[in-house]
Predict the structure.
Amino acid sequence: METVLSTQQLTKNFGRLCAVNHLDLEVKRGEVFGMLGPNGSGKTTTLGMLMGVVNPTAGNFSWFGQPPSHHIRKKIGAVLEHPIFYPYLSGQKNLELMALIKEAPVTNIPKVLELVELSDRKGDKYKTYSLGMKQRLAIASALLNDPIVLILDEPTNGLDPMGIAEIREIIKRIATDGKTIILASHMLDEVQKVCSHFAILRKGNLVHSGPVDDVGKGEEQVEVVAFHDDLALLLEGFMGASSIKKENHQYVVKMKEGFHSQDLNRYLFEKGIVATHLVTQKKSLEKQFLEILAEADHAAPIKN
Amino acid sequence: MLHLLKIDLKKLIDYRTFWVICGLYFFTLVAGAASGMEFLKWLGRTFEQFGQSININRIPLYHFPDIWQNLAWSAGLLKLGLAIMVVISITNEFTYRTIRQNIIDGLSREQFLISKMLTNLMLSAISMILIFLIAMVTGLIYSPTLDFPYGLTGIGFYPAYFLEVFAFLSFSLMLGVLIQRSGLTIILLLNSYLIELIIRENIDNYFPQTVPFFPLESIMNLVPLPFARYAFQEVRDYVSLGSIAIALVWTFLFNYFAYLKLKKSDI
């Protein structure tokens, strides 16, 4: 598949602080690529470098296999951090100005306004918009030039649940058009719902990257509840268990590879026990995220 | 080029502050330039002695060819109004962070600066054309005789006036790019003459030959004060190529410093 973005050893230092450290990333065409990381992990700085507003300290990157230039930026729709517009101009005028800069046809403006449902308010000054409307106008502006790549940085920041759901719907709709989307967020749930690939940054270091579908693969965990006094002993006798933990009223059995919940169920049944509760825990991205961060912490203790 | 000018004008054309400041500026320019004679008459009415010792009708304020330099110099005093507009226009881009979005959207940093410089050029050109038209009209009204081409001597002060305005706007643009805050920039802009004067006066005692090379001094030197000639003093009534050269170098440097700052900073 065609590579849309690749970075080689991209680095940014702010004085003594290393915001992004030798970052290697690759994004292919059609991916919805989630960039995860706690606040201050270097997501926005990375996107800033990719969009030409932050000068990299070292390393380089390429869009579509070409060195960066302002011509390439015109084909990318990007909103970094929060929406930025001229407050004294109306939504429509702001988009007209953007169309001039991006050399996009003005006829696209009604289309994108319709997409984000802002047509009614297009004549009002930007400063009168609510936060949700500002975010939606930002998405409209990013779509203005019918971009091949869309970069969204915390697009649901500060929105109410309804606004978040709306923006998520818009992103999904855009993704089905086959556009490549790079989405920076610390809302894990959001990334799991819309992304196909993800990368995790921590203090400027890339600590993980891979497809979202891989999340939840690997060893299974099963919750078990049964009325039996020596359940713990019995469970330890199960050859598929790698560890057993007691959490509240239930036991959590971590399975060895190749063993599944039905094996445990069969084993218990053979011992004459009927479980009242037997559930395979689905590993969420959140859990995996925290695990990966914990591993990274363990591997590289915070240096001061 | 035209495309970049269009981008910057698009930002200003719906900005009320722009129209208020430019409106005030062009109004004072026209009204001020056209009412010099009325001012002299008022002086004559108010102070009895004024009318007796000097016959105001014999001061050739609006006569060709004096009028060219007189109006160019007077109009030069008002350029501060435009400069404040330029400062607001550039510092807004930093306060609203729209410069960041402009670059994300596909302007290069050079293009961004050029778009601002083009607006400066346009404002300078409009000022020059306007003051030229006023000079033409008032000159035709007040001049007792029309003696061309003698009446056109000194018309070279108009390109010099254009350079004076553009150099000063470039200076303001540079201050705005360096400081990025409107209040602070405007205060510094207002004080810049004073600051330069203090430095200049101190250096004057030791290296008087360096004085014409001071940036704001060089801008003022383009069109020298003409009115002393009515008190029988000698004034320079031609455009000196040396002053043009010095002002051109400073204009280049102002814009180049702004470019360097934009180039190397994270926006």
Remarks:
- The two ends of chain A are 41 Å apart (CA to CA).
